[in-house]
TrEMBL record:
<dbReference type="Pfam" id="PF18719">
    <property type="entry name" value="ArlS_N"/>
</dbReference>
<keyword id="KW-0067">ATP-binding</keyword>
<dbReference type="GO" id="GO:0005524">
    <property type="term" value="F:ATP binding"/>
</dbReference>
<keyword id="KW-0812">Transmembrane</keyword>
<dbReference type="Pfam" id="PF00672">
    <property type="entry name" value="HAMP"/>
</dbReference>
<feature type="transmembrane region" description="Helical">
    <location>
        <begin position="15"/>
        <end position="35"/>
    </location>
</feature>
<dbReference type="GO" id="GO:0005886">
    <property type="term" value="C:plasma membrane"/>
</dbReference>
<dbReference type="InterPro" id="IPR003660">
    <property type="entry name" value="HAMP_dom"/>
</dbReference>
<dbReference type="InterPro" id="IPR003594">
    <property type="entry name" value="HATPase_dom"/>
</dbReference>
<keyword id="KW-0547">Nucleotide-binding</keyword>
<keyword id="KW-0597">Phosphoprotein</keyword>
<keyword id="KW-0902">Two-component regulatory system</keyword>
<feature type="domain" description="HAMP">
    <location>
        <begin position="190"/>
        <end position="243"/>
    </location>
</feature>
<dbReference type="InterPro" id="IPR036097">
    <property type="entry name" value="HisK_dim/P_sf"/>
</dbReference>
<keyword id="KW-0418">Kinase</keyword>
<dbReference type="GO" id="GO:0000155">
    <property type="term" value="F:phosphorelay sensor kinase activity"/>
</dbReference>
<keyword id="KW-1003">Cell membrane</keyword>
Amino acid sequence: MKRLIHSFQSISLKWRLTLSTSLLMFLTFIIFSFAEYEILYNWLLGQEREAVSKTRDEVAAYYQQINRPFQNTNVRDMENLLLKLNDKHQLIRILDINHNIVISVSNDFPGQLSTAKYPSRDGIEQFQYEGDLYLVAWEHVNSRSFQGTVEVVRNLKSFEDLINIILMIIFGFALATILISIVSGLIISRQYINPIKGLNQAIMRVKEEGFQTRVTETQHDDEFRELTTIFNEMMERVEETFQQQKQFVEDASHELRTPIAVIDGHIALLKRWGKNDPDVLEESLSVCKSEIGRLQKLVLELLELTRSETIENAEITPIPIVEVVEQITKTFAILHPDFTITFNNKTEDKVQTLISKHHLEQIILILLDNAVKYSPYEKRIDVLIQKESDKVFVKIIDQGLGISEVEKNKIFNRFYRVDKARSREQGGVGLGLSIAKRIVEKYKGDIAVNSSENSGSTFIVNFPISK
Ligand SMILES: Nc1ncnc2c1ncn2[C@@H]1O[C@H](COP(=O)(O)OP(=O)(O)OP(=O)(O)O)[C@@H](O)[C@H]1O
Ligand SMILES: [Mg+2]
């Protein structure tokens, strides 16, 4: 049995579905047919028994009420009467007290039957004789003029023929059911297997051709369609992530290449002229130093970006956001005495939010650093904290260059810089905002910008207030 189940499980899904549906249909048919056969068999047999006992009763009644003495002279009349009472395939015998046949009439009755010894009670019985089925009914008559037995024997050949025909029909239908169920099982399973096959092929194609492969969605609005939609959406995301990773590697290597090329150029310069020319030596060394500084910053920021992807919030406890932001703003202001930096708190000091202190400081520093870097003329920065329902908002407002509508969505992308030359001059690598965005989102917050060109920018960060 175990082996049978195992081999059933090892065949293809299509055949498993086909076989199980066919088997189910076949079993249902067989059970119903068997029940039908049983009912029909018993009903038909009942009819036969009724017919036999009816004839027996009629004949017995006749012999009961004869009042003339039973003589050989009226045997012929009796035979004629019995012939009239008799049915097809039926034998009527009148036996005397010693079981000798007195009268025997038959109508198309096959076979010869010897006299049977009957029990004292009247009855009806079924028996087999020379391969044929018979019903026999008898009744003892004990009247004044006659003592003996009335015996009616019915050959059940036509009943058997009918039953055989019914069996043949059932067998034929069973065969047809098997065929129909296999064909319909195949059609049904194909209907279900085809989408799975499509998915299978698509997955194979993904393996061979790459992530751009999609599965064609089925027409029916069913689970398969849902599955293919999910698969396609998943592939879209995988492709997007893959493209982003590719872009990231390209951008990162490009960013790394520039300072390396500059350093390489200056070292070549030093090798040729620098040894003897103190001016070239001085300039090249300072360029190399600043480029190495840029490389260090880039590497650090890249590390920061990777770390921000894997922030674990589990061990973080709520911190007083107002206090932390005020502190970092004050420290920053000391480092930039040419800027007027204000801090404005519009909440109660108790507002707490769930974030690591280091990350909150990092976000504020990134935004303050940008505000300073991209405010060449009006050197004023305002930091504002306010509360709205269950969120706390930190706004960093500058009066700098501003950002155009088109650029607004892009500045949060890695390595994106509006004015490459200017940003590079300022020592920017284009990672600050993408790091900030990633950290903010990890803490279920949000970051946005309000700005238009040449009229300053307002960066707004919000976090859920923790209770
Ligand atoms: N306050 C601002 N005003 C105007 N432009 C800004 C401001 N902040 C950011 N930007 C623009 O968005 C770009 C992306 O900023 P981001 O902080 O990500 O990179 P970066 O400052 O160039 O380099 P990094 O911060 O990695 O040193 C900047 O290059 C700049 O063009
Ligand atoms: Mg920056």
